[in-house]
Design a protein that fits this description.
- The complex is a heterodimer of chains A (410) and B (293).
- With 410 residues, chain A is of the alpha+beta class.
- Chain A is built from eleven helices and 13 strands.
- Helices cover 56% and strands 18% of the residues of chain A.
- In chain A, α8 packs across α11, α9 packs antiparallel against α10 and α10 runs antiparallel to α11.
- With 293 residues, chain B is of the alpha+beta class.
- In chain B, 68% of the residues lie in helices and 11% in strands.
- In chain B, β3 and β4 form a beta hairpin.
- In chain B, the strands form two sheets. A four-stranded antiparallel beta sheet of chain B has the order 3-4-2-5.
- Classes of the chains: A alpha+beta (410), B alpha+beta (293).
- The interface between A and B is large, with 70 and 71 residues.
- β12 of chain A pairs antiparallel with β5 of chain B.
Chain lengths: 410, 293
């Protein structure tokens, strides 16, 4: 029986070790931490931008719900074409649009392009608007066959091509001004009528710049004016640095907690160290399973919850010491200690959960991660504290190998 | 002999020594509000070459942003805080710095509109009120109303101590600070409840003649190791995060360090003592918490 219990303890530890080891996966930044590959990193850790855009009324354009919806569609097309992976695009309320973009070198550039109205206008020299971006069938970047400079080739739709032919015929020898967002791009002379429905814009520094303009022109002019209400941009370097630093700080804090627990509580301290390690892996597992996104605030919430998770163990061990001092046997002291600690732990944790829930419900998105990991952490810590620690302690007590009260510092 | 309850006058005075100057500072100076509340832009740049604050200012002045706060934040790193500006101006300024002062990397570029700031303030206050009410309700259900009041007074104490120190030392407050204060509330009430729980248990087993004062003192002694050890383990982690965790959330961690320390103090020295005072002053309104279970 005693040997059986001992074997059980060994088996649990071995199992936990195997699970932990199997969960290890190699990631560039923290190769030795388990599961980190399966957890999405937030914008603040991998670099990216979170923008809240608001559609505002202007003299020409009103921010109607329909216009906002159409603008969303265009933003989506623009983001897609910029080659951003897994962008987030959400409508918030009636007139706000939240955009989240990760994994680009220059997030600010993307923001700049997203909110560009992309109003293309062709004007004759008597100031008449003859064609707009709405008349385009396509816009593609290319190198100019003769000069080799980057250009954007425009293809008009059939109606636009007809208008373009008529205008270039009627205004032959005069100028045709091309405006993009009220900037005069070019004012070329019409040398001869253009009847094939083609035109081009030049003056770009690189093909990449021409590509961005082509994307904007293809997606069309935004039906509303978008203002940036809030922007949170973290460069990739700072993101990687934050991740590395917080992992480093977390390991040192974790190590200090474990060392303290073992030094102060002795044998139960080892049990706590074990259950806290399992706790850490469990929380990561839950985050991975729920496909949660880990932000810097989330990591801090997780690390803080490690400190709080140890609280359940401390409450139990203090009780255990008291029970042992009253002269109870080890097994009955363990049982009594847990029974008394249970109510305390439940009452104490419910209140922290209330705070976490309110944080989650009311605070800005990028702080929610903190509340989420804190909440998951507290729930998980009740499990590891009340179930795992108890189980292992009971097994240790039952095995009879460690009966001396000195091992429990009683 | 040292007694947690009998000498409570002194514990109250220690708290007031921080809170009264804090309230004065809060009233006359308020808080050093960051862009999350006031609106504006906060930009952190890393230049490839050595730059001086003066050089950065000169470029900013060309963009009409001479009012901005400019600080060196590390090797070749500069932190710029402007008022509310449009995205176009924000980006024009960064482009201008790049052109005139050589290559740079944008580490961070946050901008917050004034509307968002106002919303955050409202939400923060709302969150504080809802959290306090929810906790009074929970404690009233699990314990008694006066204990709920005392616990909430203790957590307001901790929030005030944190706000006071941030106001007195003029540390900047951002939306992460709001999260920190709410976490402090959770921690503080958690610490208080562990003690109330022990008091409830001891009342149940106590002789009828034992005064509440002595039961509370005994309970505080019994839970002292737990109070200290839990605070220590949490502080181990927070101190590691403060010194090694990077600059982004430093004030957030600092607020938590202050709050956890204050929360531990208030749970041991303030909350049960306040409850006793409440009971002694208004003895008849509610029956004592002789637990029925």
């Amino acid at each position: 029986m005693r040997l059986g219990n001992l074997l059980k303890v060994a088996a649990i530890m071995a199992l936990a070790a195997v699970v932990a080891f199997a969960a290890f996966s190699r990631v560039p930044n923290v190769p030795w931490l388990p599961l980190t590959q399966d957890i999405n990193l937030g914008l603040d850790l991998q670099g990216g931008v979170h923008v809240v855009l608001e559609a505002v009324d202007t003299e020409e354009r009103r921010a109607t719900p329909d216009a906002v919806k159409r603008a969303m569609g265009m933003l989506e097309e623009r983001i897609d074409q910029f080659g951003v992976t897994e962008p987030v695009l959400q409508q918030q309320g009636l007139t706000r649009i939240v955009v989240e973009i990760a994994g680009v070198d220059d997030p600010d550039q993307v923001v700049r392009d997203l909110i560009r109205p992309a109003d293309l206008i062709f004007k004759t020299d008597d100031g008449e608007t003859v064609l707009t971006g709405a008349d385009l069938a396509d816009a593609r970047e290319a190198f100019h066959p003769q000069t080799g400079e980057p250009v954007v080739n425009l293809t008009w739709n059939p109606e636009g091509a007809r208008t373009f032919g008529e205008v270039t015929t009627a205004h032959e020898g005069r100028h045709l001004a091309i405006y993009l967002d009220e900037d005069l791009l070019q004012n070329p002379r019409i040398d001869e009528p253009i009847l094939n429905g083609k035109a081009f814009i030049r003056g770009y520094e690189s093909l990449e710049e021409a590509h961005r303009i082509a994307v904007l022109l293809r997606s069309g002019a935004l039906p509303v004016k978008l203002n940036v209400m809030e922007k949170r941009m973290v460069g990739p370097w700072l993101g990687a640095d934050s991740l590395a630093r917080s992992v480093n700080a977390g390991m040192i804090g974790f190590g200090a907690i474990l060392a303290f627990m073992v030094a102060y509580y002795r044998l139960p301290g080892f049990v706590a160290a074990f259950s806290l390690t399992v706790y850490g892996i469990l929380v990561l597992l839950i985050l991975a399973a729920f496909n949660a996104t880990l932000t810097l605030a989330g990591i801090f919430g997780f690390l803080l919850s490690l400190g709080i998770a140890i609280d359940a163990n401390i409450i139990i061990f203090e009780r255990l010491k008291e029970e042992l001092r009253t002269g109870r046997s080890l097994r009955s002291a363990v049982d009594a200690g847990f029974k008394r600690a249970l109510v305390t732990i439940l009452d104490a944790n419910v209140t922290t959960l209330i705070a976490a829930a309110i944080l989650y419900a009311l605070l800005p998105i990028w702080i929610k991660g903190f509340a989420l990991t804190l909440g998951i952490g507290i729930l998980t810590s009740m499990f590891t504290g009340l179930v795992l620690t108890r189980w292992v302690l009971q097994l240790v007590a039952g095995s009879g190998i460690a009966n001396s009260p000195r091992l429990y510092r009683a | 002999m040292f007694n947690f309850v009998r000498q409570r006058k002194y514990w109250y005075i220690i708290s007031l020594l921080i809170i009264i100057p804090g309230i004065i500072s809060l009233l006359f100076r308020g808080l050093n509000l960051g862009i999350d509340f006031t609106g504006g832009s906060l930009i952190e740049l890393r230049f490839e070459q050595v730059v001086t604050v003066q050089e950065v200012r000169t470029v900013l002045a060309e963009h009409g942003l001479e009012q901005s706060v400019v600080q060196l934040s590390g090797e070749n790193q500069v932190l710029i805080r402007t008022g509310v500006i449009t995205e176009e101006r924000n980006q024009a300024m960064v482009a201008g710095l790049k052109d005139e002062l050589g290559g740079l990397t944008v580490l961070r570029n946050d901008s917050v509109g004034p509307v968002i700031g106002k919303e955050l303030t409202q939400r923060a206050i709302l969150a504080l009120i809802i959290a306090s009410i929810a906790m009074v309700v929970y404690i009233t259900w699990r314990f008694e109303f006066k204990q709920g009041l005392a616990a909430v007074a203790a957590l307001l104490h901790d929030a005030l101590v944190t706000l006071s120190l941030f106001s007195i030392f003029w540390l900047q407050v951002d939306s992460a600070f709001v999260a920190a204060v709410l976490t402090i509330l959770g921690y503080s009430i958690n610490a208080t409840i562990v003690i109330f729980d022990r008091v409830r248990e001891n009342i149940k087993g106590a002789r009828k003649t034992e005064p509440l004062e002595s039961i509370i003192d005994r309970s505080l002694w019994q839970t002292l190791a737990r109070s200290a050890n839990t605070a220590l383990t949490v502080l181990f982690m927070l101190v590691a995060l403060y010194f090694l965790g990077g600059a982004t959330l430093k004030t957030f961690v600092l607020a938590l360090i202050i709050g956890v320390t204050s929360g531990t103090y208030s749970s041991v020295f303030i909350s049960s003592q306040l409850w006793l005072d409440l009971k002694e002053r208004w003895p008849k309104t509610l029956r004592p918490a002789r637990a029925e279970t």
